[in-house]
Amino acid sequence: EAEVAQSPRYKITEKSQAVAFWCDPISGHATLYWYRQILGQGPELLVQFQDESVVDDSQLPKDRFSAERLKGVDSTLKIQPAELGDSAMYLCASRGTGGNYGYTFGSGTRLTVV
Amino acid sequence: AQSVAQPEDQVNVAEGNPLTVKCTYSVSGNPYLFWYVQYPNRGLQFLLKYITGDNLVKGSYGFEAEFNKSQTSFHLKKPSALVSDSALYFCAVRADNAGNMLTFGGGTRLMVKP
Description:
The complex is a heterodimer. Helix content of chain A is about 0%, strand content about 50%. Chain A contains no helices and eleven strands. In chain A, the strands form two sheets. In chain A, strands 2, 4, 5, 6, 9, 10 and 11 form a seven-stranded mixed sheet that branches. Chain A has a four-stranded antiparallel sheet with strand order 1-3-8-7, with no helix packed on it. Chain A is globular. Chain B is about 0% helix and about 55% strand. In chain B, a hairpin with a 7-residue loop joins strand 10 and strand 11 (about 105). The radius of gyration of chain B is 13 Å and the shape is globular. Chain B is mainly β. In chain B, strands 2, 5, 6, 10, 11 and 12 form a six-stranded mixed sheet that branches. Chain B has strands at about 5, 10-15, 20, 25, 30-40, 45-50, 55-60, 65-70, 75-80, 85-95, 105, 110-114. Chains A and B meet through strand 5, strand 9 and strand 10 of A and strand 5, strand 6 and strand 11 of B.
């Protein structure tokens, strides 16, 4: 079964440092999402890509977060500088076209900022 | 705007008993509804979805959910709970006439005791 790959699985970083997460969606999936899940809460959308274009980044804290999907395939989410409140699980999901309506999530990256 | 409410932070049930995890939603337009399960430090695993058709949807691992348009609900059910069902459950919604971003509820922790 096809999977969404994310790395790293776990990341510990110091406050004010830069950190980056990587996501490789299911092959052929044009839509890619980055969600942030704070412990004990539901995931919240940070950014949505359609191919290489950003469709929605209204909830992305653009002063410190950036996301790119240069070739419309894999994607990178960056935080610089990291703050204590950024500690969370960062989930990537992808979705194909057509009527399947299926969203497939990766295993996530657990970020701890110390 | 779209939103999801999961009114119970935790549901406790004895193994072998039926379980229900509640979800209500709000969307403009027709809803597409989803249930996901999350195990510790893992991503979200798809359980089932309602797009159209029969109000009773059957999904993975013996779970089912009933779409009730008048009550704007999509409760998750299972006739006989297993200890291994203990996990975090998330309900999600998107509107059929909007972008394809999923909005999640805050999650419900299911504890199944032997």
